[in-house]
Amino acid sequence: MVSKKPAARQDEKPLPSATGWGVRDVLRFGAFVLVGIVAGYGVWVLTHPEAAEVGPPSRKVIEAEDAAEPAREKPTEQARQDKPSANAANPDYQKLVGKWMRDDGDYVLDIQSADADGKLKAVYLNPQPIHVAKAEASQAGSTLKVFVELRDVNYPGSTYDLIYDPQSEQLIGAYYQAVQQQTFDVRFNRMP
Questions:
Q1: Which CATH number fits domain 55-66+87-190: 2.40.128, 1.10.10, 2.50.20, 3.40.1000?
Q2: pLDDT tens-digit readout, 109-147
Q3: Model-level pTM?
């Protein structure tokens, strides 16, 4: 006598395998979790505008180099030729000292002093002070260059790369806005 198995009903689902989830199930679940995390972070950023607000910090005059700045690599021979020695005063850097206002807003770069090595003491105002992590001047031939790095709330490494134009008495160059990851052409005019 041959016994027949009863036919499975159409509404019955097959039993899960003894090993549990298959590889596809794990990958599908991981993808859903990742999408959920990304979507949740996006919603949090959009619903917490106070995280982007900046209160007025106290007025700070900050030396151009932070103590936490990493050690620099040894300069190449060309870099040594471009940069004057510490003993030779470079009066050209003194041309940079003063207050400079960007021509598209109330952004002020106040270069308070410049030493012979190109180290600048600077304050940046928008209109409240923003922490200046680094401010340096350099000279390539007859061209004076200014580099300023900002590190503060909403300024996580924003930078200015500027060239001094003696004919127009302007600092002209590029501003990298780190939050938006965009670069803008900018001009600073010397303030009276």
A1: 2.40.128
A2: 999 999 989 999 999 999 899 999 999 999 988 899 999
A3: 0.55
